[in-house]
Amino acid sequence: KTFHDVLIVGGGAAGTTVASLLKRRQPGLDIAVIEPSKDHWYQPAWTLVGAGAFDVEKTRRPTQSFIPRGVKWIQRRAIGFAPTENRVDLDDGSSVSYGSLVVALGIQLDWHKIEGLEATLGKNGVSSNYRADTAPYTWKCIREFQGGRALFTQPAMPIKCAGAPQKILYMAADRFKTRGLNADMSFFTPGAAIFGVPFYAKALDKVVASYGITPKFGHNLVAVDGLRRRATFDVTIDGKTTREDSGFDFLHVVPPQSAPEVLKGSPLADAAGWVSVDKQTLRHTQFSNVFGLGDCTNTPNSKTAAAVRAQAPVVAANLLSAREGSELQARYDGYASCPLTTSVGRIMLAEFAYDGVVTPSFPIDPRVPRRAYWWLKKSYLPSLYWQMLKGSLGPDWHAARTFPEAVPAIHP
Ligand code: FAD
Q1: CATH code that applies to domain 3-107+259-390
Q2: ipTM
Q3: Model-level pTM greater than 0.90?
Q4: What are the boundaries of each domain within the chain?
Q5: Ranges for the FAD/NAD(P)-binding domain (predicted)?
Q6: Which of 161, 314, 317, 322 is catalytic?
Q7: Gap from CA of 305 to ligand 1 centroid (Å)
Q8: Cis preceding-peptide flag for 155 (omega within 30 of 0)
């Protein structure tokens, strides 16, 4: 069968959740999901894996177990989009056509953009929590660190989970402090602030200072020499770029990221390659039967699974409305959450929406790192995630906000 009422491209956090929500609302709907991977990974816990606080095997489950009953899983890779013909082309030469399309391809990790990185990643003290196979090596490096220079890098935005590069920084600093090690720690970012939301950035500046970490703004990692243990940075200050070299004993790298290759230059993409959608309805700006969500869109929210949780009901509701020819009622407010591990055992729960509006779920100061949020991240959020994929969180969690409901917010 080569036609489906709804075709979902990408069966990660976003695609799977939308498939489940649609199937629950309209059991008769003919849905197919294009997803090449047999494994589904709970990526948010890789940060804890790198700090020795989570078992990597518990972050993996079979993709099959999340494909809702009655939904067809096409285990292939999409290689092209022809939205004027309602068609997606696959890597085996076949194609699938659709009534409605949901694009949920995630974000691409561009390891190759840092010279020498791929050859040394996972050895020579060079690691990254952005891969399931290297996150355990981060913990090995931290465990075996005997003092010296530890460097942590963040690439240019946008990336998925903008807080992840500094989460491992603080947990490593905490581990080194507990062991009484003499660690010279630096955090390198091309940006000019530690975090994109000023309300939280001010509180995080204090965390950085409390550990004696040196923030290196305007620094972009461009090359790694694992054998010589040297990292090279482009340093841009006042529009002038120079090169800087630093030795290391441990280097944690977060790779540059961009839109998936299959989207770049496709009719669905904006100039930068992201799926071009309305930031509230999540409908494509040009093709009215196409929706997009998750890390692959051009919406200016923080790319997180927390954002996916808020976006999926909006896409499900609006897609069904569009199919009925009625007005789109559901709106995404830009909600995202970033549980910032400020130590092993405490978390600052950053929650915010579009334009840096702070939207805490609990009526207490969200800038205060708390033990309860550590428990939330380690025990509660993983199970919340697996349930989200099945659309089984209950009506409150899966309810889409409808226009013009106000966003509960406090302003910094
Ligand atoms: P994904 O879940 O990545 O899924 C994309 C899917 O598309 C994949 O299954 C992939 O196989 C598939 N795909 C790719 N190319 C093709 C193709 N050509 N054809 C078909 N399918 C394709 N989020 C939080 O909320 N909180 C956190 O604390 C947090 N921490 C994180 C820490 C780390 C280290 C990382 C890596 C991520 C973290 N995230 C966090 C981010 C979160 O994991 C992502 O934002 C979320 O998974 C996005 O969902 P998605 O469906 O858009 O992308």
Answers
A1: 3.50.50.60
A2: 0.99
A3: yes
A4: 3-107+259-390, 109-257
A5: 4-120
A6: 161
A7: 7
A8: no
